[in-house]
TrEMBL record:
Keyword line: Hydrolase, Lipid degradation, Lipid metabolism, Signal
Taxonomic classification: Bacteria, Bacillati, Actinomycetota, Actinomycetes, Kitasatosporales
Protein name: Esterase
Residues annotated as signal peptide: 1-23
UniProt-listed PANTHER family: PLATELET-ACTIVATING FACTOR ACETYLHYDROLASE
Record-linked InterPro entries: AB_hydrolase_fold (IPR029058)
Length: 436
């Protein structure tokens, strides 16, 4: 991706590095295959998410949360407010227009516009994609499936990404019987749409253009804000569970609050969201297990000095299980190549494993892996930008591997069901390099 392309993701990732698709049903495109756009054609590119693989239909609902005890660190003088979404098993499958939109219209318009964090990170042509037309596989506000309490998994997207950018993985977990809570980190995410019509856009691009920027300090502030957000969400989940889902006059769908098993909570995140998952595990014992999808744990040293800053999770390690999933991005790979991951590995006493997806890049564990190849075939993203974002791994294999390893991990540590995929290298996934 060029110039300011990948403005947040690349800059944040590169700053730390100085220190050490699924196609249409029935068809899979070759990696990197790009169709030239037809001249004079103004039709927007369209795309769809892969189907969930579990036995349950999926429901979803969204909720605004306001932390009355915390000022917003990016907007002093106002309380911190967040949007979260629940994704959960239901008995009412969604079809056609009943499927919830991937993004609300104001968020979709901004995400696809020139200069948005989403557009600059991923390099798709501004205005060329119908982001409003993409649908999930979930029914809005459907009742939760009966049958008792279910484990909860939190999801945090990468620095600059909206909470929707992991919907394919999130829906799949919900279809397998988990309740997943996705968190938008306001003013960090490319954009966050609130029920009152407010659209909060990311402050990160402007901050990174400031002269004399201390990148390490900015990264530490982003991570701490995300950890604080996550712990606040955990507090709110406890309140929702105990008051049967009523919260500031907002009512959760029938059965959802009662289904939350707050003794079995895990967290998965991509990039900065993966860093957030493990740091929150370190800081908050309510998280029992965590998956880090290519999120680095080392930052530039204090005040920009030479050296590395390691967050406390890397310095102290973890006593509870975690899984590292790396890519073959130049700044990623196995735990041996990353000082933060290596320190975490050496200091941890809980179960841990590390896998690297051959042929992948930093975006391969997100919806970029399934959506961007479709856009490339319609000329809405260049072949070079596509490869920079998701590499040359087969999209369908990347999606299947991500879903399988994440589900296997949480099944093992939140449900006590072990399919032994994480015991070692697997003939089912020869593209996964395993280290234990």
């Amino acid at each position: 991706m060029n110039g300011r392309g990948r403005a947040v993701a690349a800059v944040l990732l590169a700053a730390t590095a100085v220190l050490g698709v699924v196609a249409a049903p029935g068809a899979v495109a070759a990696p990197g295959a790009v169709a030239e756009p037809e001249r004079g054609t103004e039709r927007q590119a369209s795309a769809w998410l892969p189907q969930p693989t579990g036995p349950y239909p999926v429901g979803t609902t969204s909720l605004q949360l306001t932390d009355d005890r915390r000022d917003d660190p990016w907007k002093p003088g106002q309380h911190r407010k967040l949007m979260i979404s629940f994704w959960y098993p239901t008995t009412r499958p969604a079809t056609g227009d009943d499927r919830t939109p991937y993004m609300l219209p104001p968020a979709a318009d901004h995400f696809g516009s020139a200069g948005s964090v989403g557009q600059s990170e991923h390099g798709f042509e501004p205005g060329r994609t119908d982001w409003k037309g993409i649908r999930t596989h979930a029914r809005a506000d459907a009742p939760a499936v009966p049958g008792g309490r279910r484990p909860v998994v939190l999801y945090s997207a990468g620095f600059g990404d909206p909470r929707t950018w992991g919907t394919g993985l999130v829906e799949d977990l919900a279809s397998r019987g988990y309740t997943v809570v996705t968190v938008d980190h306001t003013y960090d995410a490319s954009e966050v749409a609130f029920p009152d019509g407010d659209l909060a856009t990311s402050v990160l691009p402007a901050l990174m253009e400031q002269p004399g920027l201390d990148m390490g300090a900015l990264l530490r502030k982003v991570l701490q804000t995300r950890v604080d957000d996550t712990r606040f969400v955990l507090d709110q989940l406890a309140g929702l569970h105990h008051d049967d889902g009523r919260h500031h006059d907002q009512q959760l769908p029938a059965g959802l609050a009662a289904s939350l098993d707050l003794d079995r909570i895990g967290m998965v995140g991509h990039s900065g969201g993966g860093s957030t998952a493990l740091q929150t595990m370190h800081d908050d014992p309510r998280l029992k297990a965590g998956v880090n999808l290519d999120g680095q744990l080392h930052f530039p040293g204090p005040d920009g000095r030479t050296g590395v800053f390691l967050p406390s999770v890397a310095e102290d390690g973890l006593t509870r299980p975690f899984l590292l999933m790396g890519t073959q991005d130049p700044d990623s790979g196995s735990y041996h190549r990353q000082p933060g991951w290596d320190a975490l590995w050496q200091h941890s006493t809980g179960w841990h494993a590390d896998v690297t997806l051959t042929g992948s890049r930093h975006g391969s564990y997100t919806d970029a892996q399934s959506l961007l190849p479709q856009l490339a075939r319609q000329g809405a993203i260049s072949g070079a930008n596509l490869t920079a974002d998701v590499g040359d791994v087969r999209p369908d294999r990347a999606v299947l591997a991500t879903r399988s390893y994440v589900a296997s991990f949480f099944d093992r540590w939140l449900r006590g069901h072990d399919d032994h995929l994480l015991d070692g290298p697997s003939p089912r996934f020869p593209e996964m390099i395993y280290e234990r």
